[in-house]
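[job 0412] stage=complex_fold ligand=uracil status=START
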Amino acid sequence: MNETVRGIKSKLLFDLNERMALSCICPLKETANRAVPGDGNADAEIMLIGEAPGKSEDLQGVPFVGAAGKFLDEMLTSISLKRDDIFITNIVKYRPPDNRDPLPKEILDCEEWLHEQIGIINPLLIITLGRHSMNHFFPDKLISEAHGKAYRREFPAGRSQTFYTLYHPAAALYNGGMRETLKQDFLRIPKVLDVIQSGGQEGDNS
Ligand code: URA
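[job 0412] stage=complex_fold status=DONE, emitting structure tokens
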């Protein structure tokens, strides 16, 4: 990808953030300090999608900068990636009060921005972090069964996308077994990417 296309993607994301700040209808906007639209490389092959901003993210306007973010950074390092190599965002763009789970309506209100981000970045692989993110794309799956597996999903307009589903780093942080499982699932990411890049069929269509 040349510099011009990269610049265009960054500009499109910048414009999207401006529009989101002005016209997002999510009621969480009223209680949050600021929007947390997303961060990273507009030209990334990998896009990670978490749940919702927490306290640190709400203060800084950047996703995954708290304890879960530090754990995520360690896992990225374990596969020789940095934040600058990926794009990271959440299904909900504003912090829910007291870090409660986002409500279905809040997820729906933020959906247009997430899907526009996916369209602009056009990643090879989307990694969902946690059940809320996974269930946004695969409502019937259980994270306990789906983690560490790749799936394909069709989007309107005929686009097909590969997903890889993981436990949420915050859930795994203080649970030894889940933490180890997440680290092992994370180590499979390069293999999943390789299969996609070689035109293989990583993932089922369920
Ligand atoms: N948890 C998330 O899901 N997203 C963040 O940005 C931070 C913590």
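The mean pLDDT is 94.
[job 0412] exit 0
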